[in-house]
Structures are given as structure tokens and as C-alpha cells.
């Protein structure tokens, strides 16, 4: 791969699986799936919580859903951090450092 192709890949696929073992790809995919599921859970909590705020009788439930959504949104960077720390622990410091610059 030429330097230009590599730069283009990094721009459009910053977290490409290129160079990863099958095990590393499965782990990476699991982290990405968890991140996406948490994102959907947070969004759903806020949507349902917003609807529940229309009626006085369901406001408490809506408040709890806002809290759940907030906790889920806080979990997102925790998932990313866990993935990066795992990469660092496996000795992939170059890979993590490259992502920090992108």
C-alpha cells in the first residue's frame, strides 16, 4: 500500500481492521457492538423519557429514564477507554498513539 493509499484509508476508515489477527478483530467488534448498543439504549431512554414527561402521572418514570440515559451516555467513553487500555496492555502502543493523532 502506498503512503497516499494508507493516508486515505486512515481518513475514511480510522479504525480499520487491517493488520489485526482474527481474535483481535472479534474483540474490536465486541467493543464496537457494546458501544452501539449503549448508544441506542441511551437514545431510547431519552426518547421514552421525553414522552413520559407529557403527563404528570408518568413524570417520575420519565425522570428515571433520563437518569438511565445519562448513565448510558457516560458509559460510552468508558467503553472506548477500556478498548484502548486493552490495546495498550497488549503492547499496541503505536496503534493507540496513531489513533490519538487522527
**Shape, per Cα inertia axes:** elongated
Instruction: Give the N-to-C terminal Cα separation.
Output: 19 Å
Report the β-strand fraction as a percent range: under 5%
Mean residue pLDDT: 82
Q: Whole-number radius of gyration?
A: 19 Å
Q: In which range does the helix fraction lie?
A: over 70%
**Biggest β-sheet description:** none
Order of helices and strands: HHHH
Query: How many beta-strand elements?
Result: 0
Low-confidence stretches: none
**Helical/strand content category:** mainly alpha
Number of helices: 4
Can you describe what's shown?
The protein is elongated. The mean pLDDT is 82. It has four helices and no strands. Helix 2 runs antiparallel to helix 3 (59-89). 4% of the residues are buried. With 102 residues, the chain is an all-alpha fold.
How is this fold's topology laid out?
Layout: H1 3-12, H2 22-52, H3 59-89, H4 93-101
Helix pairs in contact: 2-3
What keywords describe this structure?
mainly alpha; 0% strand; elongated
Task: Kindly summarize this structure in a few lines.
By secondary structure, this protein is mostly helical. It has helices spanning 3-12, 22-52, 59-89, 93-101.
